[in-house]
Amino acid sequence: MNTKFDLKSARTRAGLTQKDVASKMKISINSYLKYEKGKLVFRVDQAWDFSKIVNIPFDQIIFFNPEYTSSVHLQPA
Q: What is the dihedral of CA 44, 65, 28, 3, to 10 degrees?
C-alpha cells in the first residue's frame, strides 16, 4: 500500500517552506498558499513539477480536496 501525501505533508517531508516551493514553481507565495489550502487546483504540468520538487512520485500526492466540486454546470443541448 502506498502512502498518500497532501501538498503540505509532501512539502514538509521534503524539508521545504512554502516560499521555497513557490520560488521553485515560479509562482507567488500567495498563489501557492491557495493551492495548499485547496482553494486552487494545480494544472497537470504544475502537479508534475510539484512532485519533482518534493521528490515524491506523482501518484502518491493528493492534489485536490476530495470534497472539491466543479462550478461548471452543463446545459442540455
A: -70
13-43 per-position pLDDT tens digit: 999 999 999 999 999 999 999 999 988 989 9
Q: What is the CATH number of domain 5-58?
A: 1.10.260.40
pTM (2 d.p.): 0.79
Matching residue, cell 466540486: 69
What φ, ψ does residue 25 adopt, rounded to 5°? -90, -5
CB-CB contact of 15 with 26 (8 Å): no
Instruction: Record the cell numbers describing residue 47, joined without a space.
Output: 502537479
Report the phi/psi class of residue 15: left, alpha or beta, with left for phi > 0 and alpha for psi in -120 to 50.
Answer: left
- Cell numbers 521528490 label which residue? 55
What is the residue extent of each domain of the chain? 5-58
